[in-house]
Amino acid sequence: MRDIKPIKLLGTAAAASLLLALPVLAQDAEVAGEAAEAAAAPGFPDEMVFILNSLLMLIGGFLVFWMAAGFAMVESGMVRTKNVSMQLLKNISLFSIACIMYYLIGYNLMYPLGAWAIGSDETGGYLGAFAIAALEAVGVGTGEVADISYAATSADFFFQVMFCATAASIVSGTLAERIRIWPFLVFTVVLTALIYPIQASWKWGGGFLDTQFGFLDFAGSTVVHSVGGWAALAGAILLGARKGKYNADGTVNAMPGSSMPLATLGMFILWLGWFGFNGASQLAMGTVGDVSDVGRIMANTNAGAVGGALAAMILTQIIYKKVDLTFVINGALAGLVSVTAEPLMPGLGTASLIGAVGGLIVVLTVPLLDRFRIDDVVGAIPVHLFAGIWGTIAVVFTNPDATLWGQLASIVIVGLFVFIVSFAVWFVIKTVIGLRPSEEDEALGLDKAEVGVEAYPEFS
User: Fold this and answer.
1) How far apart are CA 173 and CA 42, in angstroms?
2) What are the pLDDT digits (tens) for 296-331?
3) Which DSSP string corresponds to 164-233?
């Protein structure tokens, strides 16, 4: 049975320029003793610390769950009318599969609490424990809790499983309109049971990236977002582009989405959910400092989104002489991804600038993917992979504990692992059962061909 998820207390630094460095409790994992030190406050009952920390994770989990609706709406708005029901079905299915696989395999594989199958806490683990997740007993008493200064295992599991599902959601949009439902879900099983939790254990489970490289990733610019981006990139390369997307001369045919209102609604839902994604990654709310830091994280998260949206808006006006709404939507999301690796240490101005660079990255890299004929329907690779890489590197500008070598090496290690394993899994699936529908089914639309329920039957 799992006791707690230990966390690491990062160091402090002097304030400088636009940033204020405060003590930080990140989603990192080290030892339970440090968690107790960080959470306990003089004269404040441990039981109340336990309750407040657990409440923070539950509220964060609610908000991150709501991001599933955001992904569904963004994808539904960005695909053509004939494929909307398929995207909705994929988002419901992948979330359900992620929760089951994280329960059966992923949670203890990601947080082995010293029970590494390969490696150890001292040298850094490489492969976690294989065991089914277990919650506390019903009506557990104070004396029966493994670490009263941390939080409930149930609250921790509930919060963490939402992150696992988020990584899978990223893949769905990139491969839209030309992948069959069952091959996609087979890959989702592998991603959520093995690929995501293994690499996440290297950082948040106290593995070798944490102990040997000093890798810092507060809420998952790399651990969650880049991972989804690498998996999506591998799938997009093997799957190929939608029929008619690219001409023989290399020119691109626009394939407008079904609903910009839906896509915009999805962006705002994701924006809201991100306050839980980043804010609750503090993992502690039992002291004045913790609560202040949670508020600071949420303010900086908002600033990152604002910077990304405005930067994308300005750059599309300069390049295309018009403001492209799809770029602004993805610019805001890229700003959120960019600030996720370190949402506590920057000041508001610095957080806005970090997000702004993410917005610029989206505008510049979407055409780059088209040049290589990589068809990313919703722009998830620029948003989650490229902006995730930038955000992870940007940590060195605001957190003095970060090193450029540690950040870059970790990006490369995680990227190679996820891309190579994902490519291999996609290749096996393609070889055994195939990935794409027939040309006739793709032209007809996957709502009719595979789902059987059209989103907009009156427009058929």
Assistant:
1) 48
2) 999 999 999 999 999 999 999 999 999 999 999 999
3) HHHHHHHHHHHTTTSS-HHHHHHHHHHIIIIIHHHHHHHHTTSBHHHHTT----SS-IIIIIIHHHHHHH
